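EI: anyone free to look at a 316-residue chain?
SC: sure, send it
EI:
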Amino acid sequence: MKNSHTKRPAINFRKTCNYIKRYWTLYLLLTLPIIYFLVFRYTPMAYILIAFKKYSIVQNVLDMDWALNHGFEYFIKAFSNRDFLYALRNTVLLNFLDLIIGFPAPIILALLLNELTFKRFKRITQTIVYLPHFLSWIIISGLALQLFAPTNGLVNMVLNRMGFASIQFLNDPVYWVGTYIFLGIWQSVGWNTIIYLAAITGINPELYEAASVDGANRFKKMWHITLPGIRSTIVVLLILSLGRIMGSEFDRPYALGNNLVKGVSNVIATFVYTNGVRGLQFSLTTAVGLFQSVICVIFLFAANAIAKKFGERGVW
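SC: here you go
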């Protein structure tokens, strides 16, 4: 018995050495992304302490004095700042609308493209719809100005010719939110469709043949075969989208916003830029960023737990 117990570690060690000798090239390739994450992702996390300290440009982050109220001075300042509360509200509102309206759009487009029988037309359509993904929001904002400007925009000129009044797409807060969501869907729907089309190709074609024998039409095949076949992909992407519900991209609201719609276009990212980069309030904006990240992680874990409760695999 003692000999068997002493041989096991030696055998396991030998197996490990043989495994590493066989696949050492893969581990060598893996070292590059690991180094990248350690240097550019994990090492900067030490500067999270700035949220709890009085920032000084001439001092190391460890030597800075702690903020008042046990280090939570800047968190209290943030939640007593009216601009931050408006930015928080706008971030949640715009991301929620993006999720409700924008998330189903690529699923519907993927289902429609999958039903196209002419492969050449399908490829051309797919190429056209995902090209806007490669446009920056500065270019898209310029296109939006040419299309939706109140006086000389193409859409309002057509409306005026038809006898209708001009619509303030970019100057009225309500219409601006609608334009913001529409442009976001237009820019990202084609690119996200690629993921669902890839998932659809993994569905067994024999299921469609069996459904045709049973007399199922296209809609029933789509509802009972295609959608259940890509359900796991939908759940994973939904979890990731819920994890970004408190996140906010900077370029999109900043490029499309203006002073007339500042009440709805000012999000957390633009608040951090205005108060942190331009206002030099680094401790305040670091506290805001830390709060934002923590809430995103909570949403991510909650969405993953709910998905597992309903029988899905989740993200991990």
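EI: The chain is about 70% helix and 0% strand.
SC: 👍
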